[in-house]
Amino acid sequence: MSKPPKGPPRTAKAGTTPNGTAGTTPGAMAGPSGRNALRTKVKTAAKRSLSSARWLERQLNDPYVLASKADGYRSRAAYKLLEIDERFPLLVQGARILDLGAAPGGWTQVALAKIGDKGSILGVDILEMAPIPGAQLMQMDFLDDDAPDRIKAALNGSPTLVMSDMAAPTTGHKRTDHLRTMALCEVALELACDVLTPGGAFLAKVLQGGTERSLLEKLKKNFAEVRHVKPKASRAESSEMYVLAKGFRGQTPDPADSD
Questions:
Q1: Is residue 38 part of a domain?
Q2: 7 assigned to some structural domain
Q3: Domain CATH number, residue 99
């Protein structure tokens, strides 16, 4: 397992966005030392708590939020995937991609623009999503027994990449938040091992604090290469990072099945 990079990766190169433009480089929108030249202040109101005001101020001054609006992406998370793909190419022409917990669709938009006409992408979420022209969207619980078969049928084969930007709602308790998000990553990995094509890849959000041993063991058992990635678009104060596993070895029989 490689260690997280000491510094953030360089900002992803501009490419075609959902708006059909060349794209906005978020870093170019910042002032000296990476701070916005003009910063919007938000005052608390009678019905707005201090924490809500701080969250709103952060959103209004976040260069990635501003860029996502200009470029037509549904979330700032789009730039995380762009940066990861620039360093470790995953979104190749003709790829078949499964995007778990896809709502609101930022990652699906990025992947769709990269895989070309011969590729296919399926965004799955328990929440309803607005259509994304060119992408398939499926509202379902991917833990359902028939989920693997429905996924493969929609993609006309096994996916070459399973990706997940899912995170559990935060409680404010670090250990609890860590465990809940790691649990989401584990179930995403279980599905990936059920549906991935040999040689495929898995990308999922985790939280700093150490990948759980059981998850790490399963990743190393099923993939040839495993590493952690911290994209620049992840907020500096956030403990989120991503685990990237490449070279899926194929489904490994469960010893319990031979009993």
A1: no
A2: no
A3: 3.40.50.150
Q: Looking at residue 67, what is its pLDDT?
A: 66
Q: Where are the beta strands (DSSP E) in 25-141?
A: 96-100, 120-125, 136-139
User: CB–CB of 80/231 below 8 Å?
Assistant: yes
Which residues, in sequence order, are CB contacts of 156 under 8 Å at separation 6+? 96, 120
Q: 161 with 200: CB under 8 angstroms?
A: yes
Interval 125-162: pLDDT, tens: 999 999 999 999 999 999 999 999 999 999 999 999 99
201 or 57, greater pLDDT: 201
Query: Which residue type occupies 84?
Result: I
Is 205 annotated as catalytic? Answer: yes
Angle at which helices 106-115 and 78-87 cross, to 10° = 40
pLDDT, residue 181, reads 85
Residue 178 domain flag: yes
What is the spatial distance between Cα 163 and Cα 177, in angstroms, rounded to a whole number? Answer: 20
Identify whether the C-beta of residue 143 lies closer than 8 Å to the C-beta of residue 166: no
Active-site entry in 80, 114, 205, 230: 205
> Does some domain include residue 190?
yes
Q: Is the pLDDT of residue 12 over 60?
A: no
Counting the structural domains of the chain, the total is 1
pTM given for the model:
0.75
Helix, strand and coil percent figures for the chain, each rounded to 5: 35, 15, 45
Crossing angle for the helix pair 213-222 and 174-195, nearest 10 degrees?
A: 20
Q: Taking all residues of the chain, what is their mean pLDDT, rounded to a whole number? A: 79
> Residue 167: which H helix or E strand, with range?
none
What is the extent of the structural domain holding 150? 78-249
